[in-house]
Amino acid sequence: MKKLEEYVRSIPDFPEPGIIFRDITSVLQDAEGLHLAIDTMQDLIKDMDFDVVVGPESRGFIFGTPLAYINRKPFVLIRKKGKLPCETVAKSYDLEYGQATIEIHKDAIKPGQKVLIVDDLIATGGTTKAMIELIEELGGKVVGVVVLMELAGLKGRDKIGDVALKSAIVYPGK
User: Catalytic pick from 16, 72, 87, 96?
Assistant: First the structure.
């Protein structure tokens, strides 16, 4: 049986020289790879106590929804600005070249709810930190973050404070 990291395609010099892009489409396109990814992430959270799963657009939807389903929990979307139809709260954060804004429905998280964030990747931690701040603004408590991949060299873990981060695969570089 293959290891999970063997399903991830590494593309050198993309999007620029010196960067190794970790492509999850090769995981998704292989039935065994996808099954292993979900099972591995589920194993990482099996002892966590949470009320709701939150995932960001769009790859957080891919991994978050099956984990919510398995655990019989609701799934809440975090989307790019302007994509949600009801009243939202927003958070802007810095990217390498500019800014981005994410939103969540104002009524999506109830005060006191324990929240698990699920995403495909943590790199610099900017998106994850912004999600934590949005959830806390609504009165939720982020009890954990689970990702398929962590790019440890970019130190995203440092930006999320004392929130438990579980990573199925950890790459030491960028």
Answer: 96
